[in-house]
Every structure is written in structure tokens, then in C-alpha cells.
Amino acid sequence: MTTNTFSKETETRLIDFFNHTIAPEDMAKVIRQVNYTLALGVMREKETPQNGIENNFYWLNELAEILNPYLEVE
Fold this sequence. Notes:
Layout: H1 8-20, H2 24-45, H3 53-67
């Protein structure tokens, strides 16, 4: 796993994006909807996922969980 830190400009742009464009909870919902749609498309096209696509689903889900924890056990 890579541990990079955001530049100040990137951090500022992300904060601005989530403060003025879309709420983190809404973005998490969009990511989950897109991930679901992509997964259905892959399953319909081929029974086994294409090389490396499993990681893409995983990382999109991780980002959604950071923005709005949904699967977190309380």
C-alpha cells in the first residue's frame, strides 16, 4: 500500500469540492451506485472479472467508506 500525502493545493481543492460541489455522503452514494453498475456489467459480459478489475471495485468501495461509513459495525 502506498502512503502519499496530499499537496496543500490538492487538499484545498478536495475541501472546496466537498464544501461547495457535493456532500461527502452524496459522493459516497454515487460511488456505490457506479461500483454496483460496473460490477453488474462485468458479470453480464464475462463470468470472471477482467485482470485487476477486482482491485478497482475494492478501492472505490474503500473511498466510499471513508466519505460515509456504511459497512462499519457499531
